[in-house]
Amino acid sequence: MRAIPQALAYSQANQNRFTAELIDLLRIPSISTDPAYSDQVVQTAEWLAGHLQGLGVQDAEAVQTEGHPIVVGGITVDPAWPTVLVYGHYDVQPADPLDLWTSPPFEPVIREGVLYARGACDDKGQMFMHLKALECWMQTTGAPPVNLKFILEGEEESGSASLPGFIRTHKEELSADVVVISDSSLFAPGIPSVTYGLRGMTYVEITLTGPDRDLHSGTYGGAIHNPIHALSALITEMHDADHRITITGFYDRVRPLSEEERSAMSGLPFDAAAWAQDVGVHTPRTESGYSVLEASTSRPTLDCNGIWGGYTGDGAKTVLPSTASAKISMRLVPDQDPDEIAELMEAWLHARVPASMQLAFNVIHGAQPVLIDRESDAMSAASHALEDVYGRPPYFTRIGGSIPVVADFKHLLGLDSVLMGFGLDSDAIHSPNEHFGLDRFAEGIDAILRFHAHYAAG
User: What is the CATH number of the domain that holds 111?
Assistant: First the structure.
């Protein structure tokens, strides 16, 4: 712990340069889901591998997969010391709709101490904190107090298709004692938290086809079942009046919240009215019997993420469409299984699709839900580190999002993860004007340094 002051001082003295380097990284549009940006994704991976090499990670490299590259490398100071595997992702969401950005998404700008760019928070900014923490150690004490390994992927925003296979074939290189991930949020500004629960997900696309081509709505309307109407009716039927999901068997494996967890959640400083106002709604809509916080973090969900069919251009086109499609995500909780939920949904749809329609059902990707032991040495180190930085013990929280690799690390490597994030729910990740406070960028580096020291001491 004696080396902490030097590392912290180095971080403080170099924040402007750290930010400038992050801005260089954010300028590269590493959109993994769009093949048009494949070259930029590769460019980002090579940038990161080069940066790690410059920090002293001599074996850092961008390893090509069947999809996008995965950046790996590490520093082993002493085999007897604990090893921390750092996971992050360098790919970003598409920036659409571009007209809602106040500044171009890949031309980062700083306004009032906040950095605006696609990927600023999710996850380039948070991932980069770990690289800068390593630099602080290397430039002050010559080495971190733990062994460090890095695995930085380029497909998180498009399903992480290559990652599980990569982990399976690189188990020895990725062996560690714990995984640390910064891809989540503080509970609120200045209020630290450690995430111990993540929802899983099943993501599907469904298409209904009626007539074999688009038809004139005047000539055929009234005698042909419109696929948009049929699909809308099915989606409406997926919830009942209590906002419970109606898919047969959907709740059979849901692990209920314990009374201790419900009591802890009710004690969190959460203002449901302010939460609703922040996202521009007057009245939240939850599953009957559950609070906003419970419903948005710890209960399963079903949401239509997009729906289309027919003519959507300017002006009028009186068309009766041949097809209608929708993308639907289902957030899952322990002990639901993504594959089983997909099968249940497909069976439910087949039982209800009108005879006038044909159904196409496609599973896009899934993720297992996760609960992490709150009593582990690594979680204790994270708790102490955050208390050092923020002057108060962190809350232990569950969040509504999914980080599929957390389950992969547990299943494939036997490793638990520490989810120590510094975003805020208001950072507009996946939305126009994504941003990240530079104060939290600095706090994150400090907390990571302190975590290394506490974990080494523990």
Answer: 3.40.630.10
Q: Which residue do the tokens 């009032």 mark?
A: 112
Say which of 61, 91, 408, 427 is annotated catalytic: 91
| Residue 308 CB coordination number (10 Å) | 14
CA-based end-to-end distance of the chain = 11
Tell whether the model's pLDDT for residue 159 goes beyond 90: no
Provide the number of structural domains found in the chain.
Answer: 2
| Angle, vertex CA 300, rays to CA 297 and CA 306, nearest 5 | 95
Each residue of 96-117: pLDDT tens digit? Answer: 999 999 999 999 999 999 999 9
What is the distance between the alpha carbons of residues 52 and 21, in angstroms, rounded to a whole number? 13
354 plus 378 within the same structural domain: no
pTM: 0.83
Q: Can 156 be counted among the known catalytic residues?
A: yes
Residues 321, 227 share a domain: yes
How many angstroms separate the most distant Cα atoms in the chain? 82
Half-sphere exposure of 397 (CA within 13 A, CB side): 27
Sheet holding 200-209, edge to edge: 303-309, 323-332, 200-209, 358-367
In one-letter notation, the amino acid at residue 397 is: T
**DSSP H helices in 120-162:** 124-140
Q: Return the SS3 of 399.
A: strand
Backbone dihedral region for residue 190 (phi beyond 0: left; psi -120 to 50: alpha; all else: beta): left
Residue 264 lies in a domain: no
Give the other-Cβ count within 10 Å of 79's Cβ: 7
**Domain end point (choices 346, 367, 388):** 367
pLDDT at residue 255 greater than cutoff 80: yes
The residue annotated as part of the active site, out of 122, 156, 427, 443, is 156
Residues 209 and 347 in one domain: yes
**Whole-number pLDDT of residue 2:** 59
In a domain, 289, yes or no: no
For the beta sheet containing 114-116, the strands, ordered from the edge strand earlier in sequence to the opposite edge, are 109-111, 114-116, 435-437
CATH of the domain at 356: 3.30.70.360
**Residue 120: which domain range?**
4-198+369-457
End-of-domain residue from the set 333, 350, 367: 367
Same domain, 178 and 205: no
Q: Does the active-site annotation cover 66? A: no
